[in-house]
Amino acid sequence: MTTRTAVVSVSLVLGGAAIASAGPDPSASTAAPAVQEAAGQVMDSTGGVIVGATVTLRGSSGFGRDTTTDTRGRYRFQDVPPGAYLLTAFRDGFAPATKELTVSASEPATADVTLSPASFADEVTVSFTGAHSMSALKIDTPVRDIPLSVQSYTSSFMKAIESTNVADLYNYTTGVSRSGNTGVDFVIRGIRASNTGNIQYNGLPGLAARFNSPSTENVERIEVLKGPSSVLYGQAQPGGIINIVTKKPQAERAQIVDLRGGTFFGTGAGFGDSNKYHLAADFTGPIDKSRKLLYRLVAAYDNEQTFRDFAENEDLYVVPSLSWLGWHGTILNLEFEYRRTRTALDSGLVAPQNDITLVAPINVRYQEPADYINEDGKTASLSLKKLFGGGLTWNVNWRSVWHEDDTKGFENLGLTGLTTVTRRDRRQLNTRRFHYLDTTLARSVSTASIQHKLLFGVNGGYELTDFDRVQFASAASLNVNILNPVHGARGLASRADTHRYTPAWSYGVYLNDQIDLSPRWKALAGLRYDRRESQEEELRINPRVREKTSDALLPVVGLVFQPSRTWSLYGSFATSFTPPPPGAADARGENPFGPERGRQLEAGVKADLGGGRGEASLSLFEITKDDVLITLVAQAVNDQIGQERSRGLEATLSHRILDNWQVIAGYTFADSKVTEDSDPVRVGSRITNAPRHSANFWSRYDIRRGPLSGLGFGLGLVYSGERAGTIRGSSSTLPVLSLPGYFRVDGGIYYVGRRYELTARMVNLLDERYYESNLGTATTSLNIRPGSPRAATLSVRVKF
């Protein structure tokens, strides 16, 4: 069998214009006598260029640079002092390769590095987190140069924990907690997401499925930006955003098939009683001989009988994509996405008197066996990157989403005494449309000795939600017992409720400047103007039209001090806003409300652990959200006398101790609570589903030599402290629901060959009984989500 290879040609020359640079080395003396430049091109054995390959240069003196290849497969490092260096090049689909080289002051040095298509054994050496991020500043930037908290989780980490959807990562994502079953149900830094802007897909809002977390089959990495992010991304809650960066077509042909089966065998589910199956394929390669036109096809099918009674979920996911490199200096990507889900309607558990000790076993489900949520989502995304002369880069990003869902069943409505769950017969048909555009111009300029990386952007879009409650009725005939629900109740007579048609238009313009003040000091300054125009038309109950326009001016500033290549000290101030819905109304039926505004003060330190082996960080933050829109309990009206605040710290560590041993860990303390409210009883209440203390740890060790070569072991630890499931209220006599803290142990056993990989993954080894969240009303516990009992999966991945 012939193995195809890729060749990286490396040239070190004096002078010349730079294609890419990570900036001057803070540890280098400003009086260095001579510097070189490192330039080259990444290509495969047929001469096809490799776009987006990562090239790093590390010196014995602590010097370090990272860059990526452009649309012609080229890269260049500026200002390389004489010395000994280690050059590393890698790209998804190829095995990393390194080579030693020496740069002298008198003559250039050259080196050739050969990359072979990656085997599974090579993939496990890829770091769990990336040293660069696109999400934080919309320009590929080293994490150590960003005065904000950001982490980039790679596909290597997703494979290590056998994730099939983004929510699987939340337990191991520092500062993030899952708070429900939709794509935006998470808490980040103690602040509820609750907005489509808090989860992005290649930098734009709009998911193919609403009630199920996004699939990870087409994900290259997940970037988590902590704190307010509205300057670049528009409306969002101030806790932070999660940006899903998808896989792109590759110039080297590859075909991967993934087969997986699993079962629950813990509390509430016997071995073999509840099963899950997963089938996925990932095919990529060139279409034409010149390798200017590339394709990728990702597809997955999941079928799961969950540990909840009579609950079966089915998910079909297909993503074809194309890349065209034919236009000089341009990358054009086109991606289509289809997701079809058939999910059992599940309103969770209930806790009488908000007492968690009175809940039913975790398998009990109050909905009928045939109650369902059906979703169909289609998306189209286009991105274009064009390089012009003089270092000018133009980016265009477009995303459209067409989504429908149909929910039918008896949802949890309330509690009668300690034994009865009341239910509501509900059917709702929803339609959503998202059409968003973001375009930017980026260029590096100099003013005297100060370097600027300027980014000017314009974005906006159109959203439409059409929510039609075609059935909305309740009666005593739907009641069931809390511990032993008897199914088979008949639906009620038809009773239509609201039908709301809500279009909205968003516009934004922003300017961001990354400033190299000196070799040791870097700054960030940005400003955005954003405007949202929306209306809500009620088509059935008391037909009416309400309109609302909101705008905001949003700044961000930050400063980084780097005393050496190892350390970065930073501080920043960032802002966010969330416009009020057009249907919000005060006691007079008017909507005078302004947007909710968030602000964050953050200070921290980041450490580069050297040699590209990892990083660590420690940050202190305070997030304040003003003008919080609330619903008064005593009246069906809104008010805006509210403030929430979250204070805390985060510590993260990602380290490749050895080439075959990696560790990722994190700890978060977040004291988040209501600090102002029109109901004084609520003041001091903790934000629901937000633990004060949370921690995560995952370690993987692979044996690389000897008779056990290829065998690997993984260990995961997850801790979440006690959380409030409800808040206090003057109209309620119920105590606050307390969701107990929990400690979960996960594990994995791997066997990795060149063309195949076997994984046995275990979740909740000790069969800890725990609850992730409560999605009931502010004061009642009507939708408590239990965590998974002990479960195991066995998977095999084969590369052809």
Structure report:
The protein is globular, with a radius of gyration of 27 Å. A hairpin with a 3-residue loop joins β42 and β43. Helix content is 2%, strand content 55%. The chain is mostly beta strands and 800 residues long. It is built from 3 helices and 46 strands. The N terminus is likely disordered. The strands form 9 sheets. The chain has a 22-stranded antiparallel β-barrel. Strands 5-2-1-8 form a 4-stranded antiparallel beta sheet, with no helix packed on it. A 4-stranded antiparallel beta sheet has the order 4-3-6-7, with no helix packed on it.
Roughly what percent helix? under 10%
Rough shape?
globular
* Unreliable spans: 1-33
Specify the number of helices: 3
Secondary structure class reads: mainly beta
Strand fraction band?
over 45%
Mean pLDDT: 85
- The Rg value, from CA coordinates, equals 27 Å
Q: How is the main sheet built?
A: 22 strands, antiparallel, barrel
**How many strands?**
46
**What's the N-to-C terminus distance?**
12 Å
